Amino acid sequence: MAASRALEDLVVESHKGPYRVRFKPGALESLEDTCPSSTFVVIDQRVADLYQDQLREVLARPSTLRIEATEVRKALESFPDYVDHLVAHRIRKGHVLTAVGGGILQDIVCFLAATLLRGLDWHFFPTTLLAQADSCIGSKSSINVRATKNVVGTFTPPRQVVVDVALLDTLSEAEIRSGVGEMLKVHAIAGPETFNEIAADYNRLLAERDVLEHYIVRSLELKRVLVENDEFDQGPRRIMNYGHSFGHAIESATGFAVPHGIAVTIGMDMANHVALALGRTSEETVARMKPVLVMNYAGFEGTPIPVDALLRAIAKDKKNTASALRLVLPDRAGRLSLVDQAADERFRRACEDYLEELAAA
Ligand SMILES: NC(=O)c1ccc[n+]([C@@H]2O[C@H](COP(=O)([O-])OP(=O)(O)OC[C@H]3O[C@@H](n4cnc5c(N)ncnc54)[C@H](O)[C@@H]3O)[C@@H](O)[C@H]2O)c1
Ligand SMILES: [Zn+2]
């Protein structure tokens, strides 16, 4: 990949004041500059192993906490381990937490920062594409409780985010495409023209560093508008749930065999098809978006998705109202909006038809 040129900082407003997303090549080498001795580093075990040379000083600190990035480790039941470790190393008010890793480490540290000693500042060095292009801004922490995913959480913005895109070189292709799924989503929300732009550049995005960087920045800029207008998810931000009601249900119905952003990519395709079957959108919209979505979930279309488990999971979505599913669906022009949809026979049939078509692809 070509060497990157300097990217400009992005400033995000939040209820705790503005914070900066800095693009910094070699961020891990200079991690200790941003991390004085009053900082407690909490790092993805895999990232610690892969980048041990760059992280020598930080990894040598007894206070550094390494966590395996699994859903079990971001469940509430795992938190006593983290609190014990930090307390044993004498964490105090005024100390700072620094997360190094993907969305899992972000959720863990954001939640610790919100609650430990009634609140600490935190910094974030995202290491996955999903975290760099999407989850690193927006303030949310989402924690599992036993098998129930993302059921407990807070709105706790970081003090700063430091992005080094070179860290993405060690990610698997599936993890890259998972991040691209969220990037496609936020471009779709911005409108058909914006989606068509990223769709046309899809292959270059995967192959060329400059193109990837352009779309990381663009995705953050698009998301920033939504989170600044509605940090607490009371209105306009809910449109970000596009692909997610179906995507979360696919993750749950497959026992998390599909990475989050890939499940979201299938979820967008499914939302489009279901909207067509319900007479809400046009053939043209479904066909226009389909090719790039298919490329992005390639290899996962054969994962068995039992329809009953999927429908049960959709019915439990925390965004639903008491009487209806709350879905984000395209209209005839391809514009996305929140729609209340009964979980009736027609809806079930539309879901079944889509899953049959997907399995046969
Ligand atoms: N709070 C939010 O706003 C928000 C938003 C979206 C997703 N999430 C959560 O984020 C989680 C998913 O996050 P994710 O997709 O970033 O992945 P992740 O944190 O689960 O990491 C994915 C895998 O990549 C590995 N990894 C991380 N960085 C690497 C690197 N540079 N090189 C090689 N391997 C690396 C990890 O060890 C792990 O095996 C989910 O739990 C989801 O619920 C939170
Ligand atoms: Zn998501």
Summarize the structure.
This protein is α/β, with parallel strands linked by helices and 361 residues long. The protein is built from 15 helices and eleven strands.
Shape category: globular
Oligomer: single chain
Strand content: 15-25%
Q: Please provide the count of β strands.
A: 11
Percentage of residues assigned to helices: 40-55%
SS content category: alpha/beta
| Number of helices in the DSSP assignment | 15
As a whole number of angstroms, the C-alpha radius of gyration is 20 Å
Spatially, the strands of the biggest sheet line up as 1-2-9-6-5-3-4
Task: Tell me the span between the first and last alpha carbons.
Answer: 32 Å
Low-confidence stretches: none
Describe this structure in words.
By secondary structure, this protein is of the alpha/beta class. 46% of the residues lie in helices and 16% in strands. The protein is built from 15 helices and 11 strands. The chain has helices at 31-34, 45-50, 56-60, 79-88, 103-115, 129-135, 173-190, 192-200, 202-207, 209-229, 244-253, 260-277, 283-297, 307-315, 345-360; strands at 10-12, 19-23, 39-44, 65-67, 96-101, 121-126, 140-145, 148-155, 160-163, 325-330, 336-341. Strands 1-2-9-6-5-3-4 form a 7-stranded mixed beta sheet. A two-stranded antiparallel ribbon has the order 7-8. A hairpin with a 6-residue loop joins strand 1 (10-12) and strand 2 (19-23). The longest helix has 21 residues, at 209-229. It is globular and about 60 Å long. The protein binds nicotinamide-adenine-dinucleotide and zinc ion. The site of zinc ion has 4 residues, from helix 12.
